[in-house]
Amino acid sequence: MQWLRMASIILLWASGCRLTVAADGGDALVLGNLDRTGWPDALTSQASVDTASRAEVLMFGKALLASESLDEPGLKQRLGVAQVQLKSIRQVRDGLWDRLLDTYRTASRNCDEQMFCPRVRSVADLRQLAAGFTGDISPAHALWASKSLDVHEQVLNEQLRVAVLQP
User: What DSSP string describes the chain?
Assistant: First the structure.
């Protein structure tokens, strides 16, 4: 379960950073424009990390839900590909939901009376919770939510593009 906690932290970090990766000559990758714009609260305890992790899971779930409403032409346009492997995309999405559920459950242990802590029993519960999640509890959180959703959409697009190009 330690790897789930680490995955949550990495997910949180990634949402707080805008990463620009560009090809450099050959196959080397260059990382640029590292801009810290993440979670507005201090991550000073396990409870605060868990709260941020739950919020990130819900934001990624929101991006994942939105992608599910795209039809084949919409997916082609969004991913910038000529052909779409719907079976591969479905498998990636299902796997992502399973991992999000595991991460949310791990971050939800002992979180009574903390932000973003409704209990979920299934992927269906998590999907419903993500659909209604805004993260808009303060101006700072609203700013985080907007930027987080953008980052998660970009990460999701890359995951789906890989599913199409390497089924």
Answer: -HHHHHHHHHHHHHHHB--EEEEETTTEEEEE---B---SS---SHHHHHHHHHHHHHHHHHHHHHHHT--HHHHHHHHT-S---HHHHHHHHHHHHHHHHHHHHHHTTT-TTSTT-----SHHHHHHHHHH----SSHHHHHHHHHHHHHHHHHHHHHHHHHHH--
